[in-house]
Specification:
The protein has helices spanning about 5-10, 45-50, 70-75, 90-95, 145-155, 195-200, 230-240, 255-260, 265-285, 290-305, 315-330, 340, 345, and strands at about 20, 30, 35-40, 60-65, 85, 100-105, 120, 135-140, 165, 185-190, 205-210, 225, 250-255. By secondary structure, the chain is α/β, with parallel strands linked by helices.
Length: about 350
């Protein structure tokens, strides 16, 4: 049953458990709790927080949920809220410019493996070994997912600088971001064209996209996956790299951070509790798909029970790999360290 706006506002800003103070007349009253308003995409993993079933300790949290693009925009551009979900790539580039107006908290709302996102023509014989030196489309050069796409190709043994990259929309013309300064092997898709059109016209060999192209169909479509058995490929990737690729991170505006630095660790704790509650729910009622329980059990078997854990130490290695990859891709002029990415959080 969908939450009404009234019920959502009531539960997302739950104020149970306020500390008590006593004014001069001796009457006990509730002390005002620190408050944060955060924007985040509509992820079901965090429904326990959105409904108020999980409440951060000594923190009133207003949880704004909605379209991902709009929530990402509000996190960085809407000064009326305290922060929320944002791109790791955009933040590492911000830090590289010396901009520390936003503070990263080691909460990772979005993660995703990458083999599933590589597509080619149905009649193509493209293999993992044959990707080197090819013409590959990518939906955006400076997106977090794109950083992990290129890391995946390096894991396969390919030099991404020897690949001809074409940046554009998978299904239609799109505003895209190119490397700055420009790279000789990266260009924008011709005006009015999509990556799917270019691939079907054999002007590129494959394309990376975070959502399946419209003409994708595993058996009948003109576009298919390069790795039909992507689960096996991604499990091998995880075994070799120990990365379940984080793409988004929670950011707070510096003034909100300075108001109560201790709130960051309470947020991390609340997100971990939300993950635990969600996982328990999946096991108790595993009916979202017929074989969901097998997926849940397989993920734990391959990746461990804490593969969605938030916090710095559990994610230090993956963030370090991300910073290295962003540097190799030319997104940053210098190689940022994990401790710089989370410098404010570590100082609290």
């Amino acid at each position: 049953m969908p939450l009404s706006r009234r019920r959502f506002l009531a539960t997302s800003g739950c104020v149970a458990g306020q500390a008590l103070v006593r004014p001069s007349n001796g009457a006990a009253v509730a002390a005002p709790r620190p408050a944060l308003t955060l924007a985040c995409s509509n992820y079901v993993r965090f429904m326990p927080i959105a409904t108020g079933d999980i409440v951060p300790e000594n923190l009133t949290l207003t949880w704004l949920r909605g379209d991902r693009t709009e929530m990402l925009r509000r996190t960085t551009d809407d000064a009326t809220i305290d922060g929320g979900e944002s791109s790791m790539a955009q933040h590492v580039m911000r830090l590289d410019r010396g901009d520390r107006t936003l503070v990263a908290i080691p909460i990772f709302p979005l993660r995703n493996f990458t083999a599933r996102d590589l597509y080619t023509r149905k009649d193509s014989k493209l293999t993992a070994e044959a990707l080197g030196g090819r013409r590959i489309g990518i939906y955006n050069w400076a997106a977090s997912g794109a950083v992990w796409y290129r890391h995946f190709l390096r894991y396969l043994g390919h030099d991404t600088k020897k690949i001809t990259w074409v940046v554009g929309g998978p299904d239609g013309p799109a505003e895209v971001r190119l490397p700055d300064p420009p790279l000789p092997n990266v260009s924008v898709a011709p005006k009015g064209s999509s990556l799917g059109d270019l691939m079907l016209a054999e002007k590129i060999d494959a394309l990376f996209a975070p959502l399946p192209p419209k003409r994708f169909d595993a058996t009948e479509g003109a576009i298919v996956r390069v790795f039909p058995d992507f689960r096996t490929v991604e499990q091998k990737y995880f075994a070799a790299t120990r990365c379940y690729p984080p793409q988004h991170v929670v950011l707070l505006r510096r003034q909100s951070w300075e108001r109560d630095r201790s709130s960051a660790r309470r947020l991390v704790d609340a997100f971990n509790k939300s993950e635990a509650a969600f996982e328990a729910g999946q096991r108790q009622f595993p009916y979202n798909s017929p074989w969901l329980i097998q997926d849940v059990e397989d993920a734990v078997r391959v990746m461990g029970s804490d593969y969605h854990a938030h916090g710095l130490e559990k994610n230090r290695h993956a963030v370090d790999v991300f910073c290295q990859s962003a540097y190799e891709d030319g997104l940053t002029r210098r190689r940022l360290a994990v401790d710089e990415f989370f410098a404010d959080f570590l100082s609290a």
